[in-house]
Amino acid sequence: MKNNPYQNAVKQLETVAKYINLQGRTLEELKCPKRVIKADLRVKMDDGKIKTFKAFRLQHNDAVGPYKGGIRFHPNVSEDEVKALSMWMTWKCSVVGIPYGGAKGGVICDPKNMSEAELERLSRAYIQAIAKYIGPFKDVPAPDVNTTPQIMAWMVDEYEKIAGKHEPGVITGKPVEVGGSLGRTEATGLGGFYVLEQLRKVRNLPQNITIAVQGVGNVGYWFIEFAKKAGYRVVAWSNSKGGEYKGKKITNEQLLELPVDILVPAALENQITKDNAGKIKAKYIIEMANGPVTPEADEILHRRGIISIPDVLANAGGVTVSYFEWCQNNMGYYWGKDEVFSKLKVIMDKAFGEVWKIYANAKRKTKNEKLTPRMAAYILAVGRVVKAMKMRGGQR
């Protein structure tokens, strides 16, 4: 597989291991998920035929708290992709300091060619397959690519039927009507906007800097909305069919190479590779997708002086508000949207500050020109997880 995401995730871990003297069994344990769940989901289609869908749930590490991670429905879902995403979720939760470990789920399917009834049956079949491995204090799934609050509602309903009791905290990203949090829809995009604001402050950037956003799904849409409202100039955007720049049609590949101040990849992984990293003209990248920059591209961008704010920090707003939702579910007390947004800002600003301090200090004190913002985030995140693992003890 070209640009295998799991190999990328392991390479990133091996790189940060050198900075924090991580080795031996602890390093090897972190390279692999603790549990791999696979299932063949037999689903009755609208035409009466039974179709089988391959499904996965990967649980990476739970030293800090319950596993946490989304479920994606996509034709390109693979075990290696889900393994990588589960590892990145561990780091993401750790970067922002919320008490979760990482997990991820996926089903190989094309939801664009499925009816609502078929999607509901698929969603319920998925929960039936993984029900014994999840729970409010065990593993808490959430939405991801092509999964919606409605799908989460079906999933929590199916879990509660199996459990025989109400357990709204088992899944986050639900509709507000069944225990979802206000502000969850906007959360990932808003968290990225807060990162943009902090980046502008530490780099003394003007308010009217230009931005190009690749991928206007939920995340990209809300990032653009908040950025525009604050006075930033979003000059280019794209979706899966292509994009637009100054009124002209462009491809997703062309968008990545536009002469803008900030590039925001908010689609899928492996968008910036060794093949196009040398053509990137933006001075800054805010990674709103998971794994949009390969390790090889990371090195090229860094050599060229392009600062890339990593996904594990930039798009952590979604899992942070999922954590808020989980807290609200478990205590049966719900917050207003303004309170959610203000609590999110506190966490995102703090996380950015901690990552930037490690990055800036390394450059200033040790003249370490190799340390990227991604490695700074990993030093923070992996260090916290390793400390929790060691505090728990065991043969490591």
Automatic annotation (TrEMBL):
<dbReference type="InterPro" id="IPR036291">
    <property type="entry name" value="NAD(P)-bd_dom_sf"/>
</dbReference>
<dbReference type="InterPro" id="IPR006096">
    <property type="entry name" value="Glu/Leu/Phe/Val/Trp_DH_C"/>
</dbReference>
<keyword id="KW-0520">NAD</keyword>
<dbReference type="InterPro" id="IPR046346">
    <property type="entry name" value="Aminoacid_DH-like_N_sf"/>
</dbReference>
<dbReference type="InterPro" id="IPR006095">
    <property type="entry name" value="Glu/Leu/Phe/Val/Trp_DH"/>
</dbReference>
<feature type="site" description="Important for catalysis">
    <location>
        <position position="144"/>
    </location>
</feature>
<feature type="binding site">
    <location>
        <position position="68"/>
    </location>
    <ligand>
        <name>substrate</name>
    </ligand>
</feature>
<comment type="similarity">
    <text>Belongs to the Glu/Leu/Phe/Val dehydrogenases family.</text>
</comment>
<dbReference type="InterPro" id="IPR033922">
    <property type="entry name" value="NAD_bind_Glu_DH"/>
</dbReference>
<feature type="binding site">
    <location>
        <position position="188"/>
    </location>
    <ligand>
        <name>NAD(+)</name>
    </ligand>
</feature>
<dbReference type="GO" id="GO:0006538">
    <property type="term" value="P:L-glutamate catabolic process"/>
</dbReference>
<dbReference type="InterPro" id="IPR014362">
    <property type="entry name" value="Glu_DH"/>
</dbReference>
<protein>
    <recommendedName>
        <fullName>Glutamate dehydrogenase</fullName>
    </recommendedName>
</protein>
<feature type="domain" description="Glutamate/phenylalanine/leucine/valine/L-tryptophan dehydrogenase C-terminal">
    <location>
        <begin position="181"/>
        <end position="393"/>
    </location>
</feature>
<keyword id="KW-0547">Nucleotide-binding</keyword>
<dbReference type="Pfam" id="PF00208">
    <property type="entry name" value="ELFV_dehydrog"/>
</dbReference>
<feature type="binding site">
    <location>
        <position position="92"/>
    </location>
    <ligand>
        <name>substrate</name>
    </ligand>
</feature>
<dbReference type="GO" id="GO:0000166">
    <property type="term" value="F:nucleotide binding"/>
</dbReference>
<feature type="active site" description="Proton donor">
    <location>
        <position position="104"/>
    </location>
</feature>
<dbReference type="InterPro" id="IPR006097">
    <property type="entry name" value="Glu/Leu/Phe/Val/Trp_DH_dimer"/>
</dbReference>
<dbReference type="InterPro" id="IPR033524">
    <property type="entry name" value="Glu/Leu/Phe/Val_DH_AS"/>
</dbReference>
<dbReference type="Pfam" id="PF02812">
    <property type="entry name" value="ELFV_dehydrog_N"/>
</dbReference>
<feature type="binding site">
    <location>
        <position position="322"/>
    </location>
    <ligand>
        <name>substrate</name>
    </ligand>
</feature>
<keyword id="KW-0560">Oxidoreductase</keyword>
<feature type="binding site">
    <location>
        <position position="218"/>
    </location>
    <ligand>
        <name>NAD(+)</name>
    </ligand>
</feature>
<dbReference type="GO" id="GO:0004352">
    <property type="term" value="F:glutamate dehydrogenase (NAD+) activity"/>
</dbReference>
